[in-house]
Automatic annotation (TrEMBL):
Manganese is among the record's keywords: no
Membrane-spanning segments: 258-279
InterPro entries, A to Z: TPR-like_helical_dom_sf, TPR_rpt
Family matches, as PROSITE patterns: TPR
Keywords: Membrane, TPR repeat, Transmembrane, Transmembrane helix
TPR repeats: 74-107
Protein name: Tetratricopeptide repeat protein
Length: 296
């Protein structure tokens, strides 16, 4: 039988174990509480728990935190729109969905969204598709100003800032220019006036610093400028000129196989026509015989 002292020792040991476990769990909770939580992650968690109030709150915080790519921004607007619809704010939901579709016209709702919450989305899709213009940029070279010209199309007034990163093709370093969003932005670039081709990538940011438009990237830039010349094998010794034009005289037309193919075709067609005419004429010539009929 266990002595009283032994029973006391065991009870104290168990108590200490419980206290240590509780302290460890509390310490872990404190550590988790001290770590910053990504608002978008928190919004996704609330969304899976069908807690639309928390989803709306965390997704709004994610939007204002900024720094999101277009894909993440579309997801944020989707969470905001569904949450607003679920909470009875159809107008707010429609606005969120319009912005989502402005960033990505092909964006869809999750399959789990019930039909009763889809009406604002369908209205927003109709509004966005009815617009003759879509959110985006058109890029060219302003040679007179030695600059990159960015024409901004922003039907829903979502843009606040335009960032242009450009370099002459073959260079390593980009020239970065940040400007207020306007219908046309000129980004100065040394050498642009005479450059054949310029590599670039463009970001259009909302007031929170989220990318509503991203064209190209640092490692996969787009290119604008003159079309590069393509070398033609056996081209008669002509060189490639600027703007993709081919310069220099070629060989004689009699050296071109295509000339002889076309010529042979013409001869065959002409021969067929002549033969047809002769056959047609022979069918109308009266038949002559050796028999004559006289009148007595």
């Amino acid at each position: 039988m266990m002595r009283a002292s032994q029973r006391t020792f065991v009870a104290v040991a168990l108590l200490i174990g419980v206290v240590i476990s509780a302290s460890s769990a509390d310490a872990q909770r404190r550590r988790r509480g001290s770590e910053p939580v990504d608002p978008l992650t928190a919004a996704e968690q609330a969304y899976t728990e069908v807690d639309f109030e928390q989803t709306l709150e965390h997704a709004g915080a994610a939007l204002q935190a900024g720094g999101h790519t277009p894909d993440r921004l579309v997801r944020i607007y989707m969470l905001l729109g569904v949450s607003a619809a679920a909470l009875g704010d159809a107008e707010g939901a429609r606005d969120f969905f319009q912005r989502m579709l402005a960033v990505d016209p092909e964006a869809q709702l999750d399959d789990t969204v019930p039909p009763r919450l889809r009406a604002p989305y369908l209205e927003a899709r109709g509004i966005v598709s009815a617009r003759p213009e879509q959110l985006g940029v058109e890029v060219g070279i302003a040679r007179a100003q030695s600059a990159i010209r960015v024409a901004l199309i922003d039907p829903f007034q979502m843009a606040r800032t335009v960032r242009v990163h450009a370099r002459i093709e073959g260079q390593v370093q980009y020239t970065d220019v940040e400007a207020e969003a306007e219908a046309e932005v000129l980004a100065p670039l040394d050498g642009a006036a005479n450059a054949d081709r310029i590599e670039y990538w463009v970001e259009v940011l909302d007031p929170y610093g989220n990318q509503v438009v991203l064209v190209g990237s640092e490692f996969e830039p787009r290119t604008v400028g003159r079309v590069a010349a393509v070398a033609v094998p056996g081209g008669g010794g002509g060189g490639a000129g600027g703007g993709g034009a081919q310069e220099g005289g070629g060989g004689s037309i009699l050296e071109d196989p295509l000339f002889w193919i076309i010529s042979a075709g013409v001869v065959l067609v002409a021969g067929g026509v002549v033969a047809g005419v002769l056959i047609d004429q022979s069918s109308h010539v009266p038949v002559q015989t050796g028999v004559s009929f006289g009148i007595p």
